[in-house]
Task: structure prediction
Amino acid sequence: MSNRGTERPPSYDELRRDNDSLRAQNEELRRRVAELEQRIQQLEQQAFRQAAPFRRPPHHRKATPGRPGRKPGHPGIFRPTPGHVDETMSVPLEQCPHCGGPVDRVRDIEQFIEEIPPIQIHVTRLITQRGHCPHCGWVRTTHPMQMSLSSGCAKVQLGPMALALAADLKHRIGLTYRKLCSVLRLLGLSVSAGGLVQALARVARKLTPLHQQIAQAIRAGPAVYADETSWWVGGPGWWLWVFTTPRETFYWVDSTRGAIVVEQTLGEHFSGVLVSDCLASYDPISCTKHKCYAHHLKALSEAIEQIPPAEAGPLRQLRGLLIGAKALHKARPDMAPEQFALYSRTLRANTEALLAQSYTGLGVEKALHRFRTHREHLFTFFDHPEVDPTNNLAERQLRPAVVARKLSCGNKTDAGRRTWQILSSLATTCSQRTHPFTHLVAAALPLFAPVPSLPAAKG
Result:
């Protein structure tokens, strides 16, 4: 038997409470919909904005940007007086150039004009001889300037300095092969892009031992900064790795993004600190590690934007702790050791306490999982003052390669891959050590010249 007729109708107060509750839920849903629509609009704008990777989002820009350039009070920049003078010209003031009358109190006004003289390519016609020895067979004479023993169609060759300049313009300045041919043509050298490719491949083969010397120097350093980006070798699926210190940079192009590249580059017994992002390929190697704060802070900022503001408190606290740790590292040289030890212990303890708690928001727990996984790598730079909190050095050393990738997409062949990684590593390392890359290449290129050692850092 139904008891529907005996149910008590809701009272006025109950209806009002239900109505208020529904209104509140409706307002919350409206707010979430508006947030999602705004987020979708931002994503669509970023997708259609061609320069999006190079732009700051509007909400990250300064409301009152400062004047571009260096800060006030910096040392002035001007062209220094040349170290030598090839020619002196004098224009005397013997009479007034306007009325022709006499002048007195004449003084000199000195200027220096630096000019590129007309370029005339220096051509050496080298004649060696070949003959037969009854005891030794066919023999020939050689000259220290020779680059190869080729003759016939290959008898016209670029000299060591010309090839060194080509290598510098390609792998340090970043010109494409076509533009490099245009620059050399301005200097009076006619060469094809294909000819340059083959010539620089020969240069890279001669300098291969120096590439290995860079890897050995990386392994012996107190800290190495590593990163990787996608690459192209006749097709997608390749990776450009960079392992760098303030004194050397080692590039390596490989078909894998796995840990084997890290292990082969740094060796089985790397005693320094490995600074990287949170890619799992860096985890298997047994050494002291530090995870980049720039990546950590970016991940926190993105997580804070995607969860309700009421739930983001722990993430904001963690971001503040990491920013404080960076500031403490920067201020360390001016602090007493005991004061630094106190502040660092406090930061460690507060971070550990924050990560040890459980939070109801799924977004918070998901964001904190990253930091709980790498909690032992959060403050490595406190124990190793030579280590930077960020991986910015590796990011900076990848930037020229990313620009080169935009221009040429990478390499077309495996031989091109080897040429690129060897010459780019040496060009970048020479820049870091303030040694002219052209001098290193030119000294190594003559056929019978020994391969030079890696130049020592200056200063």
Q: What stands out?
A: The first strand starts at residue 130 and ends at 133. The two ends are 100 Å apart (CA to CA). Residues 293-390 form one domain. The chain is about 45% helix and 10% strand.
